[in-house]
Amino acid sequence: MQLSGYDRAVSGRLDATFAALSDPTRRAILARLLQGDASVTELAAPFAMSQPAISKHLKVLERAGLVSRARDAQRRPVKAEPKALVEAAGWLDTYQRTLERRFERLDALLEELQSKPQPRRPATRRPRRARSQ
């Protein structure tokens, strides 16, 4: 299947978003930033890792469009950018709706099958096994 330029761009952004979110440290950083802007020092505080390691995680999040950095006098606050999350959630929502429709059809089929009287099967006898002597 050939993707249009727009679809390739969306696919690339989704790839970057999901790759960035695949790491628990980056998810924790993003969760913290959704509560409000923070400095790298503030973001590094709850983790047993250096500020340069946190900065590497921030670069991945930044490339995915999930965070941005600004300059505020001496401070360089990091800010969550929810647009990429909204796009990923929209993509997931499409599949969730599809799966929900499939489950609804499966539920309807199960109800239909359960409401029909089931024919009784005749009892089958197992052949006797020969006893060893």
Query: Which shape, going by the Cα principal axes?
Result: elongated
Instruction: Write down the secondary-structure element order.
Output: HHHHEEH
Query: Would you report the number of β strands?
Result: 2
Alpha carbon gap, first and last residue: 67 Å
The parts where pLDDT drops under 50 for at least 5 residues are none
Helix content: 55-70%
Secondary structure class reads: mainly alpha
Q: How large a portion of the residues is in β-strands, by DSSP E? A: under 5%
Q: What is Rg?
A: 27 Å
Taking the sheet with the most strands, its summary is: 2 strands, antiparallel
Mean pLDDT: 86
- Count of helical stretches: 5
Main-sheet strand order equals: 1-2
List its salient traits.
133 residues, mainly alpha, two-stranded antiparallel sheet, 59% helix, elongated
Structure description:
59% of the residues lie in helices and 5% in strands. Strand 1 and strand 2 (78-80) form a beta hairpin. The protein has helices at 5-21, 24-33, 40-44, 51-63, 82-115; strands at residues 67-69, 78-80. Helix 1 (5-21) packs antiparallel against helix 4. The protein has a two-stranded antiparallel ribbon with strand order 1-2. By secondary structure, it is mainly alpha-helical. The radius of gyration is 27 Å and the shape is elongated.
Secondary structure layout plus pairing:
Layout: H1 5-21, H2 24-33, H3 40-44, H4 51-63, E1 67-69, E2 78-80, H5 82-115
Antiparallel strand pairs: 1-2
Brief summary of the model shown:
The protein is mainly α and 133 residues long. The chain is built from five helices and two strands.
